[in-house]
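TASK: fixed-backbone design
INPUT:
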């Protein structure tokens, strides 16, 4: 009688917590391509989640007639990683309607990110980055005493 073999079970290992401190630089895809190519760890990139603005009217953010929203990625030093939008844009500033220009919405998004000041993002279990804490304006820099 054949014996039943024990199967090897996959065991997930805990991934190290990765925290990225944002630099405050925000780029818009198709407008800031040269800067995006030279991005450093902690830089942010906005890009539209509307197919027409990524293909047919690539980078034409002054056009009206498209509804959608802007997504946000952070550069982790190797590649661009998605950021959880509900943490960063609490008032849904990243959405635009058909009567609005995406360029105006992108400017509002950049202002909202600037208003956050210095902030950190932490990698979640789903490989997205989430806002760790409110602005770190009062936090001391590493190696400095108060």
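OUTPUT:
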């Amino acid at each position: 009688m054949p014996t039943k073999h024990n199967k090897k079970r996959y065991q997930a290992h805990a991934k190290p917590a990765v925290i990225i401190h944002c630099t405050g630089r925000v780029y818009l895809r198709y407008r800031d391509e040269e800067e995006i190519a030279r991005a450093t760890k902690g830089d942010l990139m906005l890009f539209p989640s509307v197919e027409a603005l990524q293909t047919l009217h690539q980078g034409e953010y002054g056009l009206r007639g498209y509804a959608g929203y802007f997504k946000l990625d952070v550069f982790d030093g190797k590649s661009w990683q998605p950021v959880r939008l509900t943490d960063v844009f609490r008032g849904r500033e990243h959405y635009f309607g058909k009567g609005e220009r995406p360029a105006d919405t992108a400017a509002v998004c950049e202002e909202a990110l600037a208003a956050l000041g210095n902030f950190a993002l932490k990698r979640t279990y789903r490989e997205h980055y989430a806002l760790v804490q409110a602005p770190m304006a009062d936090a001391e820099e590493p190696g400095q005493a108060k």
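COMMENT: The chain has a mean pLDDT of 82.
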